[in-house]
């Protein structure tokens, strides 16, 4: 009896907290189906006149190409993920497999930079990228990843290889496979769990990133989703002091922009919680 | 394989990462340190060595920088501890063995995965002074809601609330730690007739103290370096009236917006790195007092 009452009390608290937590999202959701007149009126809890016009408007807007933004972001994501998966697995394999007196020292030195904040590195890279004419291209996003610069992923790959019994590599060697063949025929396919973690982290990381696009991209066709959504407010700026943001349209666009992440979350929730939570970062 | 070819293959495989380290880490760090002693601007190819001028300016002249540092500390001092306590309390609630806890876990974690640029709009609309939901609800009780993010007195607070919405990741890390606490210890405590508070402080907290330290460091650094949300909600310039101008936003503006003062930005980036480093070390020192390590 006591336990039962405690349970009900607990449920009440949890439901109350969840409701408060989800209210902002609920408000976003209903607003994207409201008309402009309703949005600027008093608070309503359901759309009085349910409309899909806001979404039509989002797709039809000038200087706002939400589908293009999505594919731009995905292109950057794929390039970055390919770069990191190839280079980090290759390098990590080298660090684990071959004997060299100073290899652990080299790896330890490389690990120290993991705590450096990105801003410290961003300024000189900005100088270089601007000078060699990479402004308004995607190169500043992904070129570095092909040099195993994601030290955290390098670390993950190395940990993974350390857990694989060495006999497996030796067996392949006896069969006469060359060193690089062993790497891409046996080692790389084994890495699936690390690759999945990398893909998830990079998807959310690229999708969230506002810093890099703000630095390097200028033309609207090249915008990422984050940048496009950030710019939407300005599209309604008529120059007069008291312009009203059409929150119904902004909400519809925002809702569309977060759908890919939500869908991914519900399909890969377990990996998400493991991957994202163990690192404590969004990407 | 001979020792020689071992070394050869070692470099075949790792050279790419060694080059990457030199080009994308070592060079930028040295260059940042060098630039911090110059008056480099991206717009002009000529620049000169100015010694400690940038540092002197940062320490004594730049009132906006001091203001942004204060705003950042206010932000971190509130967001860090509140996020830790909130996450721990809710993790304790969810650690009860009841049906449906998985659903609640998902609900509490979900805000964290919403992209920050979307969160910014969700909350700007949620807190919108004239038509937003919060002031609408306050209106039911006859309360005239404040201007939230549009007013310089309340903007930083609004930013804090919005930032705390993503506490789910801290909670998940706590929850994982709580589920690893040995059941035997609780049983022993129960036989001894320990109260719930007693059980928490004598069994639970010591067991999760390493995770508590890890989370404290993570949230402190995260709060100090907070950029995305402040950049989005403050329109990149600490709107309104510099009230949400966190250090990283100011740094971004100095470096990458006209007049692109790369030299000065390098100096204040290095200074901030030192501040974060010192605070992280302090966190570790504090941890010495409460973290219980397994003794063997």
Question: What overall form of chain B do the CA principal axes indicate?
Answer: globular
Tally of individual domains of chain B: 1
Radius of gyration of chain A: 24 Å
Q: Give the helix level of chain B as a range of percent.
A: over 70%
Strand content of chain A: under 5%
CATH class of chain B equals Mainly Alpha
Number of strands of chain B: 0
Structural class of chain A: mainly alpha
Describe the structure in your own words.
The complex is a heterodimer of chains A (283) and B (296). In chain A, 71% of the residues lie in helices and 0% in strands. Chain A is mainly α. Chain A folds into two domains: 2-60, no CATH class; 66-279, Orthogonal Bundle (MetI-like fold). In chain A, helix 3 packs across helix 14 (247-267) and helix 11 packs across helix 15. Chain A is globular and about 75 Å long. Chain B has a single domain, classed as MetI-like fold, CATH 1.10.3720.10. Chain B has 13 helices and no strands. In chain B, helix 4 runs antiparallel to helix 8 (168-179). At the A-B interface, helix 1, helix 4, helix 5, helix 6 and helix 11 of A face helix 1, helix 3, helix 4, helix 5 and helix 6 of B.
List the helices and strands and how they pair.
The complex is a heterodimer of chains A (283) and B (296).
Chain A: H1 2-31, H2 36-39, H3 53-60, H4 66-97, H5 103-112, H6 118-131, H7 139-142, H8 151-162, H9 167-174, H10 179-190, H11 192-208, H12 211-216, H13 225-235, H14 247-267, H15 269-279
Helix pairs in contact in A: 3-14, 4-8, 4-11, 4-13, 11-15, 13-14
Chain B: H1 3-35, H2 53-61, H3 63-94, H4 101-113, H5 116-126, H6 133-140, H7 155-164, H8 168-179, H9 183-191, H10 196-224, H11 228-233, H12 247-256, H13 262-290
């Amino acid at each position: 009896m006591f336990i039962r009452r405690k349970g009900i009390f607990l449920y009440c608290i949890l439901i109350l907290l969840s409701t408060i937590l989800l209210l902002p999202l609920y408000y976003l959701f209903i607003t994207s189906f409201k008309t402009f007149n309703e949005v600027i009126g008093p608070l309503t809890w359901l759309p009085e006149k349910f409309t899909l016009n806001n979404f039509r408007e989002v797709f039809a807007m000038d200087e706002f190409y939400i589908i293009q933004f999505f594919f731009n972001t995905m292109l950057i994501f794929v390039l970055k993920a390919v770069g990191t998966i190839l280079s980090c697995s290759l390098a990590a394999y080298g660090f684990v497999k071959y004997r060299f007196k100073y290899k652990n020292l080299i790896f330890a030195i490389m690990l120290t930079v993991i705590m450096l904040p990105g801003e410290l590195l961003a300024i000189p890279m900005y100088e270089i990228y601007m000078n060699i004419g990479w402004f308004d291209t995607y190169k500043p996003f992904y070129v570095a990843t092909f040099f195993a610069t994601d030290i955290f992923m390098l670390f993950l790959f190395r940990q993974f290889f350390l857990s694989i019994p060495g006999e497996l590599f030796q067996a392949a060697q006896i069969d006469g496979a060359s060193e690089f063949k062993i790497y891409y025929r046996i080692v790389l396919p084994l890495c699936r769990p690390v690759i999945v973690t990398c893909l998830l982290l990079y998807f959310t990381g690229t999708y969230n990133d506002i810093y890099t696009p703000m630095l390097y991209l200028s033309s609207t066709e090249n915008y990422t989703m984050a940048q496009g959504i950030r710019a939407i407010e300005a599209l309604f700026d008529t120059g007069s002091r008291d312009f009203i943001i059409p929150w119904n349209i902004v909400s519809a666009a925002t809702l569309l922009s977060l759908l890919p992440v939500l869908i991914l979350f519900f399909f890969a929730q377990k990996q998400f919680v493991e991957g994202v939570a163990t690192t404590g970062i969004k990407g | 394989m001979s020792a020689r070819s071992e070394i050869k293959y070692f470099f075949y495989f790792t050279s790419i990462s060694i080059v990457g380290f030199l080009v994308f880490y070592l060079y930028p760090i040295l260059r940042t340190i060098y630039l911090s002693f110059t008056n480099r601007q991206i717009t002009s190819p000529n620049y000169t060595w100015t010694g400690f001028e940038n540092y002197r300016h940062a320490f004594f002249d730049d009132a906006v920088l001091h203001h942004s540092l204060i705003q950042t500390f206010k932000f971190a001092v509130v967001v860090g501890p509140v996020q830790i306590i909130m996450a721990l309390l809710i993790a304790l609630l969810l650690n009860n063995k009841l049906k449906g806890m998985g659903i609640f876990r998902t609900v509490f974690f979900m805000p964290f995965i919403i992209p920050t640029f979307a969160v910014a709009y969700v909350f700007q609309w949620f807190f919108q002074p004239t038509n937003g939901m919060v002031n609408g609800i306050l209106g039911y009780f006859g309360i005239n809601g404040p201007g939230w993010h549009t007013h310089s007195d309340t903007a930083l607070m609004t930013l804090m609330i919005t930032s705390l919405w993503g506490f789910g990741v801290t909670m998940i890390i706590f929850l994982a730690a709580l589920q690893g606490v040995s059941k035997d210890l609780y049983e022993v405590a129960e036989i001894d007739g320990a109260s719930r508070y007693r059980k928490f402080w004598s069994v639970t907290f010591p067991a999760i103290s390493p995770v508590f330290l890890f989370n404290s460091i993570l949230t402190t650094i995260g709060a100090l370096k907070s950029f995305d949300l402040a950049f989005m909600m403050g329109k990149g310039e600490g709107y309104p009236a510099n009230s949400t101008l966190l250090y990283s936003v100011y740094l971004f503006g100095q470096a990458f917006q006209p007049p692109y003062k790369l030299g000065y930005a390098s100096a204040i980036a290095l200074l901030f790195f030192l501040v974060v480093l010192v605070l992280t070390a302090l966190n570790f020192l504090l941890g010495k007092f409460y973290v219980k390590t397994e003794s063997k």
